[in-house]
Automatic annotation (TrEMBL):
Lineage start: Bacteria, Pseudomonadati, Pseudomonadota, Betaproteobacteria, Burkholderiales
InterPro entries tied to this protein: SCO1/SenC (IPR003782), Thioredoxin-like_sf (IPR036249), Thioredoxin_domain (IPR013766)
Disulfide bond residue pairs: C78-C82
Protein name: Protein SCO1/2
CDD domains: SCO
Matching Gene3D superfamilies: Glutaredoxin
Origin: domain of life: Bacteria
Thioredoxin domain span: 40-200
The organism of origin for this protein: Pseudorhodoferax soli
Range of residues in the leader sequence: none
Amino acid sequence: MHLNDLHLHRRRLLVAGSAALASLLTACQPGTPAWHGIDISGADYGRDFSLKDPDGRTRTLADFKGQAVLLFFGFTQCPDVCPTALARAAQAKALLGAQGGRLQVVFVTVDPERDTPDVLKAYTTAFDESFLGLYGSPEETAALARDFKAYYKKVPTGASYTMDHTALSYVYDPAGKLRVVLKHDQTAEQYAQDLRRLLA
């Protein structure tokens, strides 16, 4: 198998595995309307984060009180999953209309070695001026990923490397409670419908 085909196959497996993992992390909520994503209300993980933004300020969940926060783990050299996820988030924000101003998208790099503050800022704002990239030390990144039950791994590619990682978006409601996981195969409209419920 060609190296590029192998990487694509690995990413497809990872996306599928991420959805399966998210299904295992949620409990059924009888009597509540169905989400397009996965309802994780009451989750005992991913309660907060503390990382630096491109301007060097430490940001936590409390900074975004009153907003829905969509958090995604990725890296700027990701060839397909990350740009797709951020483009879909930007489309969903546009579909929200006036409510879009109450959505904060946070992109946490799993590749702080290459994703410098300037690189992160340029990458996230290319999708939407309000999107925020956050980074930490390798140790902080690993600890946060464990707290979210998220997976990532450095994969050598000749003289360089790529990153395999979870392809899920974690969403907090405006009260700062982790409520839903958006799956990578959802449409922008399905993202927007789930976000509308949280912002209502």
